[in-house]
User: Which sequence fits this backbone?
């Protein structure tokens, strides 16, 4: 959408936020629920934390999850590449056999 999308109203940590997005509304709502859950977990670990502190803790936890997923994906990609190379060598050997 050229106007920046629709506005989706979400609630995170007891506050309403109007989010303008071209993404699917249900997807935006799921993202907000996830962020709200991560802030709730941070609040349980640090009950005296203010909203900004909790948001930063939640953001760090989400970034940690992202980095771990990326690393895991890189490792899987590397393993698949190694397997592919091994299969390619095996096929080459089979094709060059008398």
Assistant:
């Amino acid at each position: 959408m050229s106007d920046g999308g629709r506005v989706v109203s979400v609630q995170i940590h007891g506050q309403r936020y109007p989010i303008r997005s071209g993404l699917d509304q249900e997807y935006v709502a799921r993202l907000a629920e996830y962020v709200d859950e991560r802030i709730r977990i941070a609040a349980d670990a640090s009950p005296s934390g203010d909203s900004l502190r909790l948001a930063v803790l939640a953001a760090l936890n989400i970034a940690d999850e992202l980095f771990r997923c990326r690393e895991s994906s890189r490792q899987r990609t590397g393993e698949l590449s190694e397997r592919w190379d091994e299969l390619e060598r095996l096929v080459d050997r089979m094709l060059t056999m008398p």
Remarks:
- The helical segments are 25-45, 51-96.
- Residues 51-96 form the longest helix (46 residues).
